[in-house]
Specification:
Chains A, B: This is Glycoside hydrolase family 65 protein. Chains A, B: It holds the Pfam family Glyco_hydro_65C. Two copies of one chain form a homodimer. By secondary structure, chain A is of the alpha+beta class. Chain A folds into three domains: 266 residues, Glycoside hydrolase, family 65, N-terminal domain (Beta-galactosidase, Chain A, domain 5, Distorted Sandwich), CATH 2.70.98.40; 378 residues, Glycosyltransferase (Alpha/alpha barrel); 73 residues, Maltose phosphorylase, domain 3, CATH 2.60.420. In chain A, the strands form eight sheets. A ten-stranded antiparallel beta sheet of chain A has the order 1-2-10-11-12-13-20-17-16-15, sandwiched between helices. In chain A, strands 9-8-14-19-18 form a five-stranded antiparallel beta sheet, with no helix packed on it. Chain A has a five-stranded antiparallel beta sheet with strand order 21-28-29-30-33. In chain A, helix 5 packs parallel to helix 9 and helix 19 runs antiparallel to helix 20. The two termini of chain A are 36 Å apart. Chains A and B meet through strand 22, helix 14 and helix 15 of A and strand 22, helix 14 and helix 15 of B.
């Protein structure tokens, strides 16, 4: 792998090579976060080579202008984006008056390591000046025990020669967004100073759209041995402390920098400085190692219900561990005002907002590997934004609610008509997640409470968005973009039509099962419900009888249909080589579309139908979305195409670690981090949670000696270990559980072994 | 008409009312230009109310950033736009130390008038101070005799009281574009000064795209009586002269301001100041009235071969006169590096560049009302840009040449995929204009010379852009936007497919008729030509046999088809009331699409076919493009729907004068200025120029007592006068001409009368 910059080990990424041509890639991969905030793996002392310094605070964003290009009615007023926030980790370093800079300076014994079990980032190197050799050892982590805290430890040791050291732990608010068109700054200083602790309080600049301004305050303390306090940093957008002194050979200085961050999302502005001071004071009572231990213990609790172990394949182990670590670093359900941005805290691309990826790709994972509360927080996020979704529908002149393609606050903030107005299948995914939560947990309280309110408004949207074609005598949905974003503005996308028909039917079913008083409260009368059933039943679902496949959209079969392997290798990925025009007109599919729909409603189809569709579409699919291969892997496994399933799994498992799409320098593909997990658990282990309960149809991929994983299910914690010829099920917590393995109903209570069929 | 701000008179627009809520509209309508430069009808002395001051210099533009929103492969690097240039007309005025300002000051006897025969703009008012009444009379025009010159005369007369007058004729370079996102300025000062003449030399700021920078230099002189020179203006971006003095009641001052403008398009920068000085010196030898007379004489020559006279309907007369005047002010073929922007010199919307409108809507007019050289200059413009058109095709990964949607230099500079990549029918219009020129003039020299080179490259584009559908066994064109821009990304747009098939066939025909040596030089071998014929013959042209109509595109008939009159009146125009999504999905047609194609190839269809298509599409057409109603009017006339033709004519004839689309404040719809002419000449008079010659099938619209028009045709000048029951043809110049009137072949030599059939 030409793009592999880190060594393979199961639970960490590490390297002893500093590739200065790939700093952005290295920074993306060594990102870490604690759901409250996060940052790229930037260097404390700065770096003068090509690099992208990025610090992001959860829920803090700015509504930027979107009135560019050619306006269309219905477009949102602004484009929300995360903004690069105060650099929290800065520790300027000078030796004998010269800055330490790994881009320009001589150094040796470099090592960089991110622990994928607890997010501890360590970095060390020996820096060589004209007269001395000095060893630097950095450690840092963002605490999940106290999410306001960033903890850093730096040891500086003179190995040879004597050296004058100057260290300046500081906070740096002079930051810009990568996508700034005109070098704009989005922050203005509210307060700063060296006392009571060095602090910097920045407020987002005013905006004309009436969205809230945010104030973010960072305060720091520095506990230093071996150097003497020698000043403060107190300049616009800067606050910090200066330490200096002489280190003789063998002497060591230790710098503990503790930074606390609060925002007006949680604490009113007037109390910010007091709050960070108190947080820092409390932190001062514990050591770095104690803080790390408390933090690590909480991570261990997470792993106890989510760990995936792949034996005999460290690359695969590293891949799945990296993915789960990065996902949990981004979101663990503590704050239901937050969601999961496509780049998490690792970059700015896509604005950093909420996408439909959450419901389509992440809900199934969180349902299995974390408390149901985590998923419920994700559902609550959408329910809380129902009024905004109604606003979005009104913007299109339509009834009901349209959940946004991209948002921070529920209001759509993306302005490409073929996405904003047309990629409306997202509205189906929001509904489907409610059904999935209900089916997985068996808990109907969310569905019949807030859930049905969301479903009703989504159904109203669909009922208004269809039209009746007098010529064809069916309901149709024109002008959509399906999951395959390599086609836009198509008519009767099979996926979208299927999902819409399902939502209308499911909502009607749920309404009919509601207690009378709740039904009255929800306020849907029988005629409206009947209309939904009529649309659902009369929906046109394109199908080709001769081919025996569902047809992606009305005119797909008119295209020049040919397999991906007819494309010269040097023209892939298509999105980096072909014009958009050529991509749109080609038959090549960016990401699972018909198969995505059949995956969602798998039980409606025979294995033969699945197979025919897989064999038709998979050869035309280029998987240039990070969200595609995993779904195809699950389907391949379901139809017994094990080798294909493994091949597809490989495309998703180490997407970022191996920089498959050549864009990881922009940040990690956070919302596709569930892909490998889906391929392993739903694919290789064949896990399904249906109304009838949990089932497995496992096999062991070639090259692995075994794999195991832990899932939660209705109060139980279940460990599943798949070996060559058998599967071991162990109930780690909860009451005995009846489930189906290889079509056999078994009851797990303690441990159980089921042989694979021959 | 609530939007009518000018009185109706046949050859002028005038008003005695200053409606300060509609200044932008007034300014647009009183715009004037001389093809070299132009300006909105701004007030010399300034105006502190809402207003848009705009001066534009032909061929001077700036490549602005387009890297906004979501990038797509194939998009151009920059968006070219005209930039607001030095304000040439400024004459600051003070009375007793207070600025004259019609927005805030007391005034009476206001009059504003634009002469539509020679573009003389006159404005007068009496200004009332606390102690005096002062009369101001302004005149100005841009000379077509010396296109570098702007001439202004101002008479100031104290009617009552004595008054201290200060007048400052000056050049003001402190200008901004209306669409500036961040208040950018696009000019930097190169030179300025009071000597040898007050002058200001501005250069466009550097750009990163390698397109040329332009320097524009304006110099002025002022010949003043009744006031004394009292200083100069010499400040950044400003140059001018100051005059002052006391006028007692009955005393008059006259200010003649003459401004000369040159650009680096014509004169190298180092010679600018000398050149403007020489131009001004030469002008000083003639009086304002002499300059005006020379200018007016040239306009009279234009009218002698283009005048349209509508008797008995001054509104109609004013409409057609306004349109022709504004068109000729924008372009009269003197400079084949220029083209006709959609707003001409009257505003900045659409960037001010070249659109396909030129070939589709303006070439037929210029062919008839001006020397063939004017049209040939338009064709030469495209031929000169063939390399850039090849570049544009390569950007899409396609062979041949793709003429741009929007351009200044031939390179596409518009970045909306559904337009840039998909509205490719423009490439057909470029080819069709060559055929039209050849058919009208009978001159094959352009066709067989530069023209065939353009046709071949356009054909190569089409041959690569089609695909062969194995299922349907025909050639198809997927992913286009037809003339009806209320649908995007459709498949097999009948208009586009028809035009592409025609281009391929026509090009093959022309090649086969070429002299051997020319054919060799052009370099198309027989197999390529045969392939074009095969594609042309095998092109899929959607048609519905049951309805007997050509189908706009593949799935048009699946829509909810209904007539425009089912839309509530308060929802029109749709583009101001409906979301883009709703517009796209609706059946409503922005502008002639199938009918546009049948109009182009009228002789291929029977009147019955035309009628069926007209009756099918016209009820669904909202005509929200300024380019639509005129084509429908011509078709309506051709099928004998005279009332409908007149109704449609009315929508186009006074589009700007009555501000039909409620957007004239942004500038005039220059490229639709031919609409009324087409409706009158091709519609009411039924004029056609086919290979067989010229023919007419005239009728007199109800409400008119007669109409007449003059056209040039193959060396003749022909005047046609249509009365209630007869048509009079008069040969004003050239050899006897055989033509067809009401299906009768006649020879015109002198005058001839043909009765209308009963």
């Amino acid at each position: 792998m030409s793009e592999r910059v880190f060594d393979v080990e199961p639970y960490a990424i590490s390297t002893t090579r500093l590739d200065d041509g790939r700093m952005r890639l290295i920074e993306s991969m060594t990102s870490a976060g604690n759901a409250h905030m996060g940052m790229r793996g930037n260097f404390e002392e700065g770096y003068s080579g090509d690099s992208h310094r990025g610090t992001y605070i959860a829920g803090v964003w700015f509504p930027d202008k979107t009135r560019v290009g050619w306006w269309k009615n219905g477009y949102p007023e602004y484009f929300g984006k995360v903004i690069n926030a105060t650099n929290l980790i800065a520790i300027d370093l000078e030796l004998d008056g010269e800055p330490v800079d790994l881009f320009t300076g001589r150094h040796e014994d470099f090592a960089l390591r991110l622990d994928l079990r607890n997010g501890l980032l360590t970095r060390s190197f020996t820096y060589i000046t004209g007269t001395a050799k000095v060893r630097f050892e950095f450690e840092r982590f963002l605490s999940i025990a106290t999410p306001e805290l960033c903890l850093q430890r730096l040891r500086i040791r003179a190995l040879e020669g004597s050296v004058r050291v100057r260290a300046t732990p500081r906070l740096d608010g002079d930051v810009h967004n990568l996508d700034a068109n005109y070098g704009e700054q989005f922050w203005s200083e509210v307060a700063r100073g060296p006392a009571p602790v060095p602090h910097l309080s920045l407020r987002t600049i005013p905006n004309p759209f009436g969205t809230p301004q945010f104030t973010v305050t960072a305060g720091m303390r520095a506990d230093v041995t071996g150097l003497d306090p020698s000043g403060v940093v107190d300049a616009p957008l800067q606050a910090g402390l200066v330490f200096s002194g002489e280190l003789a050979a063998g002497e060591t200085s230790e710098i503990l920098k503790t930074t606390a961050v609060v925002t007006t999302r949680d604490v009113e502005e007037a109390a910010h400085v007091d709050t960070v001071s108190r947080l820092l004071e409390a932190a001062a009572g514990t050591t770095f190692d104690e803080q790390l231990a408390a933090h690590t213990a909480l991570w261990e609790e997470r792993w106890a219900r989510s760990q995936v172990v792949i034996e005999g394949d460290d690359e695969a182990q590293q891949g799945i561990q990296f993915n789960l670590f990065q996902l949990f670093s981004t979101y663990y359900g503590e704050d239901d005002r937050l969601n999961i941005g496509p780049k998490g805290f690792t970059g700015e691309k896509y604005g950093g907002a909420t996408y439909w990826d959450t419901e389509a790709y992440l809900v199934p994972l969180y349902l299995s590997v974390a408390s149901p509360d985590v998923t419920r927080a994700l559902l609550a996020y959408r329910h809380a934004q129902l009024p905004q979704a109604q606003h979005n529908a009104r913007q299109q002149g339509l009834a009901g609610a349209l959940y946004p393609m991209v948002t921070f606050n529920g209001i759509e903030c993306h302005n490409e008509w073929e996405i904003t107005f047309e990629e409306i299948h997202r509205n189906g995914a929001i509904a489907h997640a409610i059904a999935e939560y209900t089916r997985y947990t068996g808990d109907r309280s969310y569905l019949e409470g807030p859930g049905i309110e969301v479903l009703v408004e989504i159904s109203r949207f669909w009922a208004d968005r269809v039209h009746y074609s007098k010529r064809a005598q069916t309901y149709m949905i024109h002008g959509v973009t399906g999951p395959n974003e390599y086609e836009n503005n198509v008519n009767n996308n099979w996926y979208t039509n299927s999902l819409a028909a399902w939502v209308l039917r499911y909502t009607a079913d749920v309404l009919e099962a509601l207690p009378r008083e709740r039904l009255v409260a929800v306020g849907v009368e029988a005629p409206e419900r009947d209309a939904w059933r009529a649309i659902s039943g009369g929906m046109y679902l394109p199908h080709d009888d001769a081919l025996g496949v569902n047809v992606q959209h009305d005119t797909f079969l008119d295209k020049d249909l040919r397999p991906v392997d007819t494309i010269p290798a040097d023209q892939r990925p298509l999105n980096q080589h072909w014009s958009w025009d050529r991509i749109l007109r080609s038959c090549f599919i960016k990401q699972a579309d018909v198969l995505q729909g059949m995956y969602l409603f798998e039980s409606d189809f025979t294995v033969d139908e699945l197979r025919r569709n897989f064999e038709f579409y998979e050869p035309m699919t280029v998987h240039e979305s990070s969200l595609s291969a995993s779904i195809h892997a699950v389907v391949a496994a379901a139809i017994g195409e094990r080798e294909k399933a493994i091949e597809l799994y490989r495309r998703t498992a180490r997407l970022d670690l191996d920089n498959y799409n050549n864009d990881t320098e922009d940040g990690l593909h956070i919302t596709s981090m569930s892909g490998a997990w889906l391929a392993i658990v739903q694919g290789f282990a064949g896990m399904r949670a249906t109304d009838a309960g949990l089932s497995f149809r496992p096999f062991l991929p070639a090259g692995w000696s075994a794999f195991s994983f832990t899932v939660g299910y209705r109060g139980r914690v279940l460990e599943v270990r798949v070996e060559t010829d058998r599967v071991l099920l162990a109930l780690r917590d909860g009451a005995p559980l009846e489930l189906v393995v290889h079509d056999r109903t078994v009851t797990v209570d303690g441990e159980l072994v089921v042989a694979h069929p021959v």
